[in-house]
Amino acid sequence: MYRLFVILSFVFLFYSCRNDSQEEDFSEKIVFKIGISKEPAALLPFKRRGRAELQINPYIFPQIADFDPVTRKLIPSLIEKIPSEIKIDTGKHKGLLKYSLELRKDAKWDNGMPITAKDYIFSVKILLDPMLDIHPAIRNQFKSIRDIVLDKNNPQRFDVYTVNDYMLSKELVTNMELYPEYFYDSLHVLRKYDYPYFLNSNKIAKLLEETQGSKQFAKKINGTYFMREHISNIGPYKLLKWEANRYLSLGKKENWWGEKYSRMNTYLKNNPDKIIFKIIPDKTTALAELKNDNIDLLSDVPGIDFKRLKEDTLYNKKLDFYSPLALKYSVIIINNRNKILKDKRVRKALAHLTDVDFIIKTYGTGEEKRLTGPIHLSKQYYDKSLTHINYNVHKAKDLLSEAGWKDSDGNGVLDKIIDGKKTEFDISFKIIGRKIEKNVALLLKENAKKAGINIEIINKTRKEYRNDRRNFKFDLLLSNISKDLVDYDPYPRWHSDNINPGKSNLTGFHTDECDLIIEKIIRSKNQKEKKDLYKKFQEIIYENQPAIFLYVPTNNIIVNNKYKIVTSIKRPGYFANTVELKSDSKTNLK
């Protein structure tokens, strides 16, 4: 007994006398390292610009409710349950839809304060504040929320009223992040005005312009103050360090309120003790870092590299390879405004000159899936009856001849009289130098030449490319269109309201019939009716071929095989907070 007491005393003395200045020992913890190609612009979700932010934000700012990565059903995170939809027939809110929400009472901000309905109102007001740099599409979307009414007896309970003709009302009020009012607006600048004031941009802009502290608040939100050093959140991780252009690290919160719900909700898990995002712009360097165990996960690996590494016996024993379908699709945008490209027979001919199967086999993993229109394959209402337009030069030539194109002067390029002037079939394909873009453009150029079409490939800087795209100064360009798990809203990309410069209907295609179908889709609450409308919409797009729909790519993810991880079609395709060590790796921690 005395011997045991001596041993225990020695152990206690050893640990109590450790030098506090020593670096924290992570030898018995999970430190998960991820390679990302670009530094995030900011960590506030409403300032999100791209994939880098999307890979980091969820661990800091979980949404009120989100789609389960496995079942793809909307599940509660910060609220007790998903609200029901109630149509109001009388009173002040007649004609609106009501959603009653209750925040979890044990959900707390970093300072220990509970989240309340006032934080919800503040978070929506931010998105409607005209003095803040918020994307116009987001601001217009949230104007569908007409009122927010707090429960006087329960600070966590409130009712949200939305327009009744927007198909995604329930997702709008729940599928969003919350921000602590005490931290981002300590002077309660936005609280000075009731919510309905924010629905009138001009009116609230004038009021805020005259409000003390409003300009300072806007300056902090629009600037860098809340981008890096000043971050407060309700998620399972906190920002530990951000070294520009090198890495940023997140640390697991101790005694975090959400742990009790983590078994039921992927987004509330916090398995790794530390998550490090290493910024590695060069793909070759990133793969080398993965091979040398300097990072544990790399996503969006080019198909050629993914296949090569998967077949390499030196590395396929130490790495796991995942290739879930991505929630996006690849498409060649055709500018239907161009006089040469206005005829649907010409666009169909270009589709027949695009060898999609060759692109998948040569530049992808081979697991990519072809599609026929702008609705993702994962949707139940994707029309499987529409057949793929396959590579066929003879069919393309027939369509072009039918459309009046011929080589009248024998120079190898088709021509036609348009508006009284002889016009040769010369078009351009604008790219920004990415390998897949260049390969697709070169392939189409070669195939088009066989049919008498001349395609000039034009390399642009990112800035020039974005400007040309925004102002529709292009003939063809390759694009990856991101999708969501919510029902597809075709209005932004396919309605005639959005065909002008700065808008999002890039093709410029529109018909009265298509507009009408789209308007019915976004107002319909009947799932059977909506499915029929989606089918009709897909038939119209297929018949007119306003773009060349290629395939749904795979999200190629490579992970050190000592870890278990959840992958999904849901962006970003993996969930670092779910990482666990495999049982046979626990004795070999580094």
Structural class: alpha+beta
Which spans have pLDDT < 50 for at least 5 consecutive residues? 1-27, 586-590
**Any idea what the shape is?**
globular
Straight-line N-to-C gap: 36 Å
The CATH class of the largest domain is Alpha Beta
Mean pLDDT, as a whole number?
A: 91
Itemize the secondary structure elements and their pairings.
Elements: H1 2-16, E1 31-36, H2 51-60, E2 65-67, E3 74-76, E4 86-87, E5 97-102, H3 117-128, H4 136-142, E6 145-150, E7 157-162, H5 169-174, H6 181-184, H7 201-209, H8 214-222, E8 237-243, E9 247-252, E10 274-279, H9 283-291, E11 297-298, H10 303-310, E12 319-322, E13 328-334, H11 344-352, H12 356-363, E14 369-370, H13 393-402, E15 415-418, E16 421-424, E17 426-431, H14 435-450, E18 454-459, H15 462-470, E19 476-482, H16 491-494, H17 512-523, H18 527-544, E20 547-552, E21 557-560, E22 563-567, E23 574-581
Parallel strand pairs: 1-10, 1-11, 17-18, 17-19
Antiparallel strand pairs: 2-3, 4-5, 5-7, 6-7, 8-9, 9-10, 11-21, 12-21, 13-19, 13-20, 14-20, 15-16, 22-23
Helix pairs in contact: 11-13, 17-18
